[in-house]
Amino acid sequence: MSDSESAREVGRRVVLRGVARLLALGVVATTLAPTLAIADAPTDESKAEGGLTKRPPNLVVIYADDLGYGDLGCYGHPTIATPHLDRMARQGQRWTSFYSAACVCTPSRAALMTGRLPVRSGMCDDRRRVLFPDSAGGIPADELTLAELLASAGYHCGCIGKWHLGHLPQYLPTSNGFHEYLGIPYSNDMDRVAESGLGRAIFKQPRVEYWNVPLMRDTTVIERPADQTTITRRYTDEAVRFIRENREGPFFLYLAHNMPHVPLFRSPDFVDHSRRGLYGDVIEEIDASVGRVLDALVDAGIDDRTLVVFSSDNGPWLIFDELGGSAGPLRGGKGGTFEGGMREPGLFWWPGTIDPGVVHELGSTLDILPTAAALAGIPLPDDLVLDGVDLSPVLLGSGASPRQTMFYYRGTKLYAVRHGAFKAHFVTQPEYGPGGAEEHDPPLLYQLEHDPGERYDVAENFPEVIDAIASLVREHRQGLAVAPSQLSAKLPAE
Which residues are the active-site residues? Predict the structure, then answer.
């Protein structure tokens, strides 16, 4: 299928979601963003009224895997050097309360792609917390992805790296709005070779052949096992190529690194590169990758019309000790609903457009889809229930974040809620290992601006806050339709 045919097919799917007016209007204008030419119409470089260009902005989302809140220099790490991410923070916005929508891989990525809590799409489960190579499910066809939305409006969409929303053909990126894909379709520690027989020690001295993970080009496996010692560099090479070939735009590039999820691998040039050891080497190679992407945008002359977002799918995998990252001052890590499991670095870079600074307001990866739609002037379907909000007022310096509340789900169950500065835990549970769920009535309550480490329960001092949050929970549940799990079904055994 050609790019134009693929774009038209994506447009057809979006129309079925209730956006037929996109095709009917042909050109959509908003006060926030440039006028948008739909589908295959030629791009016009001329100026529209008010001085805005008719070309919509490019979007680049760079997503790490298991990166902790405290793993970057600009977020306070003392021995990991991240000059390029620090540059993003300095020239753009560094958000201090930016959240993933889940504490493990599959549901968090589904939330980013759809702007919806994963409980609405069935991309979460209470037993199988992520998709596996034997999983039969994946992102449902009736979910509107960010790529489908942008492709319907003429964007060329490329996905590079970890997908983890289903590895069967109907679930792959090229079936969900992306025109091209290169990457490992799930986590890099899957397809483990049983003969390795090393237990957890396998991660101490990892070898490529211990994990038979596939590297795919579109829908075809081109390398197995994937050579993970060069995977970050090759993803970056692909991203630079994508930018150069699509410089006329508009484009959407989703660069989702498999690292620093264990097993940790880095290219030869980054061996012993960091004072933090192997984990630091991996982060510093990701940072260098970010630098190459930013430089490619500058070299192509399109940095001033490209929004770049950097974040991570969930917090650090603390059970792997020095092979895992750091949540900095936050409590907990990957797999749990304390802050360290879901509060992530959030960097936004768009030279000449973004109002630089440190942002202390709330934001989430859920918000990327509605923000991108607003910036590109794309109306959203009337029947689409979104959990994301438009952050463009903060990015453009025209207003505050609409987000006041964050819901913390573990699987299909709501464990905690943040509203404003306060966070209530109705249920707590260790991230991994022994220990079941513990319900709290009254809930534990933390004032996160005073106590980001969630150490001091202040519930008895603020009964009115608990009542207000409980009311938000009741309202949330009234409008919540829980979709059947996509993670529970398994393929027949061979």
Answer: 105, 164
